[in-house]
Amino acid sequence: MLNSGNPDFLLIFSVGTALMIFMAGSIVFFVIYYQKRMLQNKMEQQAMEGEYQRKLLKITMDSQEAERKRIASELHDGVGAMLSAAKLNLNFLKSSVPEDNAAESISEMKDIIDETIDTVRRISKDLLPASLEKFGLVEAVKEFCEKVTTPATRVVFEFTSGEFQLPRDEQLPVYRLIQEIVNNALKHAKAGEIRISLKMEQSMQLKISDNGVGFDVDLIKQDIDKGVGLYNIENRVNMLGGRIELTSSPGEGTEYRIELHSNE
Amino acid sequence: MSSISFGTIVWYIAIITSTLTFIVALTKEFSSAYLRKIFILLYVSLICSTLNLYFIHILKSFQPIIGLIYRYAELWVLFFLYWIELVGRSPKKLYFGLLIISVTTLCLLTLGGALIRPFNAAFFLTSSILLYWQWIKKIPSETILRFKLFWINNGIFVYFSTNLLLFLSEDYIRLNHYNEFAYIWSLSNFSAIIKNAFFAYAFLLINKSELNHVKLW
Above 0.90 for ipTM, yes or no? Predict the structure, then answer.
């Protein structure tokens, strides 16, 4: 068929065009391969950064909890014990002082010391709930609900037990999470009722809802000052490797759904 | 099957694929400027193919001017596609681009209209390689296989890679290998089929999120 003109030209032309097509195909495949590798590296780097951030957050929170524990212990065993000793001495002084005026002053001082002891106990308990260490998360949450319930806002706790066992070292972060969400609701939601539901079935399912004023989630998240509370809650859940869903809109109340799976 | 009939069949297939790609584009709504440019190019290609068919089969005459008009339309459309992607879209840059393309067109017309084919091939091969280079330098946010412009660029790159030598030696082949010319030229139509397939795929990648933007016509 190709029988006229210079046959060498046609050969050169064919080889040249074939080489051009091969080069074009190679470049396209190279771009796809290279870009895929870049994307893979980027995703690996992002995953590593995420893991690093999670570990960093855990270390920060652990050290914060350790510091709280130390302060609580110092307050309870140190300051509390010294105040109790001072009170005993005042009692002794009161019985040995005959003048009415001095006895009255000593009585007032005793009242002040009593109040200080109560305050120290309360601060110590807030910093580290003793019931959490002694009886576990459920009792600590129950106690917390009783403490924060006011005539205006009822805090209700429901617990469903099951096969899921929350590791001991994750109980304090979950307690803090509940504390933060409930405190936020008490501060901002103007709710008549806050309901906490904790289910320990195949996984730990925590639902905290209120019938308060609610808020626009996207709007709050955009506001750095107002969104910091939500950011903290999300961080705590991320640190525990859990999943969080937040539903809220103005006038419709707020609902948090948190799910934690076993790490094993 | 004679070489001419084979070449004609490939030519017909190229026209059909070009028409199909145009139909695919018509069924989509898109806002990207580069897709609009490719749509315009497909539209011009369809008009030129229809005119070519009319002149060859009805009037029994070949009008090379139709092919040249398409090449000049291709030069302008693809020039601005690459200019915007590689240089930018600010008014100052666009005016500068307009000046360059006007001077280039004038030069090509003065030197001889047929130069347009090898010029386009060399120019757009370089432009498409520069665009690949730009993508390689950037850290990607998603796979390049989802980029519509990637498939457009692939089509242009493969088409001009296949045709560069053919366009450079077109006159020589026509003079010295006249009998084989239609057979060899079918290579150009075959690469046009691949180019149209890439363009159609780019249009098919348009998802619903891109709807409700600018309607084209």
Answer: no
